[in-house]
Amino acid sequence: WLPMVLVTVAGFFAGQNYYADADAALAQGNFAAMGPSILMMLVYLVLALLFYAMMYVAVTEFALGTRKAGTLVHFAFGQTEWRMFRAFVALIGLLLVPAIIILAGAGLANAMLGPTLGKGPASLAVGGALLIFDLAYLYVALRFVFLLAPVAVAEEGRVLERAWTLTAGNFWRLLAVFMAVALPLLLVTLGAQISLLGPSSMFSGLNPSAGEAAIQIHRMRTNMPFVTGISFLVSPLMLGL
Fold first, then answer.
1. Cys bridge to 51: 7, 67, 85, 147, which one at CB 3.0-4.6 A?
2. CA atoms of 72 and 52, how far apart (whole Å)
């Protein structure tokens, strides 16, 4: 789990720097100053994908029986890890673009409709559209994600296309397995986060005020050691399962 240690430490320092700059930017009204910390977060995300590729390959090889013996310290990046990394990047690109478009549309609707958004037909229309998008997003993401690592490790063709083909007709089984395995750990993680940061950390709305955002950022920065520790404990279980 050396890559897990490295990704956790790197995430902690990148996050602390980001929240410190965000706190200062809100106080001074100068968001341009966040450029270096945003760049650092992007670099961290790329490194995180590399480290997770190492971990997913090793765990998947054990699950498939192609790796027989463990090592005290595992740190490797070969052709299989590179293939896994490329699959991660392709999946993020595929899922991120529609999410950005929908969130931008929801923000625009919030800005245009203003006070009428919380009631009447406008509220129902926006809420219904977001619900449909969430369900479609879950369907597509689960179809791609569920067999991403096994395909990347055990096969040679296009990873996303093959993962999508193999999961055809099995969505409800995939969902049942995912909920049975991952949901308990997700609930523990979310419960710990809400207990530390408050309910507003999960339900802050589409357009929180500057004061609400500043309070939330301060809480996240203050409690980040605890949140990082919880994530470090849960992530190996989540990844292994």
1. 7
2. 18
